[in-house]
What does this fold into?
Amino acid sequence: MLKTSVQRFLGLIGCVMLLLLALLASLKFGHIQIPFESLVGSFVAYDPGSLEHLVVRSERFARTTTALAVGAGLAIAGALMQTLTRNPLASPGILGINAGAMFFVVMGATFLSLNTPADLVWAAFSGAATAGVLVYFLGQTAGRGISPVRTVLAGVAVTALFVAFAQGLLILNQDRFESLLFWLAGSVSGRDLAAVVPLLPIFAIALLLALFIAPQLNLMGLDDDVMRGLGLKVGQVRLLAGALVIVLAGTSVAMAGLIGFVGLIVPHLARGIFGTDHRWLLPTCALIGATLLLAADTVARLVIPPQEIPVGVMTALLGTPLFLHLARQARRTL
It folds into this structure.
């Protein structure tokens, strides 16, 4: 663990460098390999007649931007959820937030003919909030508040319920089956930059608000009476943090579908390196989350070319063993 501010600052710079390498790899590698000169030229001297320039500008740049935003958003949402619930297994994917958002997105696309992420994001917010409320009430234990075990079980049940509903809608809507299927698998391919850009300010504002309440989040592990004695407005902080989880997870699902385990894996990696101070933890989660999803998407293109594996499958392959490891570690405290 990095303990001093200088060590953490240097570690943050290292995370930025890794993110830049992941960005370069995401733009360069795929079924069509892009030489570095063509990659640079596609931005400084764009030639519409060049296939390599066209691939970078029309497909990979939007794909990379989507992975960058979604990875950072899911990682921050996971860190906030683990802090709020005091549960090391909490994440938007495990507790049903992503599944709820995904189901409402599929409903919006099926019944309201919504197509672009900017149109679908409001449906995603509604679904994420619905799932969050369901898990909150199902996770309550009479007289003792929220139970970590009941919360995880409730999240698994809510996830299964919403995924089953979404699959049922897909079966009934055969005309749009292929266009909607990616929300179940999770994918950042085929994104239109013009549709992605309007959602980027939502991510930026949510991340800034999360950083703003970082000092208050450092106190959330204390007893409620102690926090109030220290002058912390506990209810307001929890409400704002919960709203940020809904916004970040919902926007991520509207852009890329059901991508799991990023919100679970990244906060644990960041804590292992930078500790529990949210002033360092949250920006580190954003950097590592973006790097992880970019790397997973790049690898997904290279495993069985020219076919691609959905990035949601790649994150599941990485996250499932870690989830089982964390579950074994946490069983003594849950």
